[in-house]
Amino acid sequence: MPFSVPYRFGDGGIWVGMILSWIFWILVVALVVVLLIRLLRPHDSVWRGPMSGPDSPEEILHRRFASGEIDVDEYERRMAALRAHRLPSR
User: Is residue 33 part of a domain?
Assistant: First the structure.
């Protein structure tokens, strides 16, 4: 008679296997989604932070000067201050 281990329903072994299987497949799907997003995203679309958009300090200063809120001296003084405190680009 061959050696066999009888399965006991009370030990919960089947549930552990099912849960680990679900976790494994969720991780596989998440990995595939992340890889697809990285491959399909344009390479030049690096997020540069909140100061690179149309509402950057330089853009706001340009708009204020164009609308006449500030004069040339104030514009140049503030632009020089912004350039002096700008973080170095990578």
Answer: yes
How much is the CA Rg of the chain, to the nearest whole Å? 30
The whole domain housing 22 covers 11-40
Number of structural domains found in the chain: 2
Q: How confident is the model at residue 85 (pLDDT cuts 50, 70, 90)?
A: confident
Q: Do 90 and 58 belong to one domain?
A: yes
CB-based contact 86:57 (threshold 8 Å): no
Per-residue pLDDT of 18-43, as tens digits, reads 888 999 999 999 999 999 988 887 66
